[in-house]
Amino acid sequence: MKNHFFSLIIFLTFLQLGIDKMLEVLYDNNYNLNENLYYIKDYKAEHFESAWANRFHYPLLYFFQNK
Questions:
Q1: Nearest CA among 32, 51, 35 for reference residue 43
Q2: pTM of whole model > 0.90?
Q3: What does each C-alpha distance from 6 to 14, 29, 64 come to in angstroms?
Q4: For the chain, what is the domain count?
Q5: Are 7 and 1 in contact (CB under 8 A)?
Q6: pLDDT tens, position by position, 13-59
Q7: Residue 7 contacts residue 31 (beta carbons within 8 Å)
Q8: Total Cβ atoms within 10 A of residue 51
Q9: Is the dihedral angle over the CA atoms 41, 44, 47, 52 positive or is it negative?
C-alpha cells in the first residue's frame, strides 16, 4: 500500500507539471484567465468517477449559460 501511495504522489506531481506547462503556453498565446480561459483547481478533488460527477457541472454551466 505504501508503494501505491508514493506512486500516486509521483503521478499527480507530474500531472500537475503538465497542467502548469499547458497553462503557460495558453497564457503565452494571449489566453486570459476568466476571459477566454477557465480553469478550476480543486485542491480537495479526488480522482475517481463519483468525484468527477460532483464537479462535472462546472463546464456545463459555462457552456450552457444564458448570455
A1: 51
A2: no
A3: 12, 35, 39
A4: 1
A5: no
A6: 888 899 899 999 999 999 999 899 988 888 888 878 888 898 888 88
A7: no
A8: 13
A9: negative
Q: Which three cell numbers stand for residue 24?
A: 503557460
DSSP string, the chain: -HHHHHHHHHHHHHHHHHHHHHHHHHHHTT--BTTTB-----TT---SHHHHHHHTHHHHHHHHS--
Which residue range forms the structural domain that includes residue 22? 2-64
Residue 37, C-alpha cell as written in the block: 480561459
Cα Rg, the chain, nearest whole Å = 15
Beta bridge partners of residue 33, listed in sequence order: 37
